[in-house]
Amino acid sequence: MNTVSKIEELNIDGFQIVRADMFAHMPRKSDSTCSLWPTKISFSKLCLEQLNNCEFIRIEVNPKTKYLLLVPVTSQDKDSIRWVKGAKMQYIRNLESKAFGAMIYKTWKLDIGFNYRAQGSLVSANKKIMMLFDFTNAEMWRNKDAARESEKK
Questions:
Q1: Alpha-carbon distance 75 to 82, whole Å?
Q2: In b/e form, how buried is each residue of 1-26, taking b as 16+ CB within 10 angstroms?
Q3: Pseudo-torsion of CA 61, 65, 70, 75, nearest 10°?
Q4: CA-CA distance, 102 to 141, in Å (whole number)?
């Protein structure tokens, strides 16, 4: 039984080659990122590693610049947040907070129908290493609740 079929000849005039560098973005696992949802905030595992696996952080926000600063602190800091789970293998947990989400979305005038992600970079201030996230040009994607609402319309 012959399963070979005739292959149609195609005219390739007008096709353009897509440059390989358009696909060169490194996987997200190699980025220090902070993601914002209307009800929570999360950080990539690389943030934990770059901040020397600190167990507690403090979050500082600049309302004018849309910068978020992640500051390693001890449990003694009055605004410390334990951002890790696990004893042997530490990993970062999502930090749930409707109050924080509402405050940051309102202050930065973010669209409640979207989630936002920014890349971080290590910085120092007062001889202390911190991680800075710039949300002025953050990646954004429609959140599930907003997507469901738009499908109903």
A1: 8
A2: eeeeeeeeeeeeeeeeeeeeeeeeee
A3: -20
A4: 18
Can you tell me the distance from the alpha carbon of 127 to that of 143, in angstroms, rounded to the nearest whole number? 38
The alpha-carbon radius of gyration of the chain (Å, integer) is 22
Q: Which helix (H) or strand (E) holds 83?
A: none
Query: What is the C-alpha separation between 56 and 84, in angstroms, rounded?
Result: 8
Half-sphere exposure (Cβ direction) of 1: Cα atoms closer than 13 Å: 1
User: What is the distance between the alpha carbons of residues 100 and 68, in angstroms, rounded to a whole number?
Assistant: 12
Q: Can you tell me which residue has the tokens 């449990």?
A: 75
Q: How far apart are the first and last CA of the chain?
A: 53
Q: Write the pLDDT tens digit of every residue in 54-90.
A: 999 999 999 999 999 999 999 999 999 999 987 777 7
Name the β-bridge partners of 34: 43, 118
pTM of the model: 0.77
